[in-house]
Structure formats: C-alpha cells, structure tokens
Specification:
Layout: E1 5-9, E2 12-15, H1 25-37, E3 42-46, E4 55-62, E5 71-72, E6 80-86, E7 88-93, E8 106-109, E9 116-119, E10 125-129, E11 134-141, E12 151-152, H2 162-178
Parallel strand pairs: 2-3
Antiparallel strand pairs: 1-2, 3-4, 4-11, 5-12, 6-9, 6-11, 7-8, 7-10
C-alpha cells in the first residue's frame, strides 16, 4: 500500500496510515529534500493520528543553518526522546539564565557519538544539524497543544529574526569547541 501523507503546513506532513507505516530511506530522502526547499530548513512528518494522541511521534528532517529557538516543554512538563536516523546533530541544554551547559551537550552521530538521547522535562534545549540530510525521530507525551507545547527561551532570539543566524553560529562554534573527544 502506498504511503498516504497529507500536507498540514508549509513545514509538515502527517501520515494517514491505518495500521503501520515503514520509515524507509526514500521517505528520509524525501523529507530531507522538503527541508532543503523550505525557508526553515526543516520538515516534519507527524506519525500520530492527531494532536489528541497521548504519544506524539515525528520524523524531523533538519538541514545545517536551521535555527530551533531554545525552548523547554514545561507546562505541562514533558520529556523528549530523539533518535538519530541519518546525519549528525548537536544537542545543547542550557542553564536557567541561558548559559549553554556544554558539559551536558550530546553529539548524535553514528560514528563519533551517540545514536539517541532522552531529555528530561522542563530543560531548556536546542539542537542543530551538523551535516546535510540529517533526520531524527522524536517522541514526547501528548496531547499536543500548540499554545502550551513549548515555552520559548526569553533570552534567545526568535526564529526568523536577524539575530537568530549569528546566535546559531555562536552555539555551533561553542558546541564544536567544547565537545569532548569520543572514544
């Protein structure tokens, strides 16, 4: 049976599978292609039936230069798991004042780092692609309410602002400088 993906925004599709959907290399490439062609350099494939599902799951394609404003899942508190499918991700948690917690950063990279991470609820964090065609699988508890899902960090520039690109560059440079050697 063919995949039935429905576009739900300029940056996301949702799977309308009845029983199962296989996440294939072709789907990962398609989502990466979609991410490269949109202004956010990100593309989501939602796998849950809808926002009311108790477990929210998505495939998230992200390209270098895509800025995910630091945020936390705080009210209600939700943990988040991220599994690397392709590429390489830098994950940065922050102290309450916005200082990057470089001691707790994680490199998701199949040859030089970890393949998955779990972030506790209410932790300020961001992540960014370190190479093209990066795709992750994310999950967190639902339901999804766009008004309460994320609390954006007041100390970080908003997505789409002129300051966001330089802030992202600083985060990536700090991440790379402070990344411990992998053994």
């Amino acid at each position: 049976m063919a995949n039935r993906f429905e576009r739900i925004s300029n940056f996301a599709t949702i799977s309308r599978h009845d029983i199962t959907v296989a996440i294939t290399a072709d789907i990962l490439e398609s989502k990466s292609r979609d991410a490269r062609s949109n202004s956010r350099k990100r593309e989501i494939l939602a796998l849950q039936r809808g926002s009311e599902d108790s477990l929210q799951r998505m495939v998230n394609a992200i390209e270098p230069g895509s800025y995910v404003q630091p945020h936390r899942h705080h009210a209600p508190p939700k943990a988040e798991s991220v599994v690397l499918l392709t590429g390489s991700i830098g994950f940065v948690p922050f102290d309450e004042d916005g200082t990057p917690d470089y001691d707790s950063c994680i490199l998701l990279d199949r040859t030089r780092g970890a393949v998955a991470l779990d972030c506790r609820e209410s932790i300020w964090h961001t992540f960014f692609a370190l190479e093209p065609n990066t795709v992750v699988f994310e999950s967190k508890s639902g339901p999804f309410d766009p008004h309460t899902d994320k609390e954006f960090a007041p100390w970080a520039p908003a997505e789409g602002t002129a300051e966001a690109a330089s802030y992202l560059e600083q985060l990536v440079a700090g991440f790379k400088k402070n990344l411990p050697p992998m053994g």
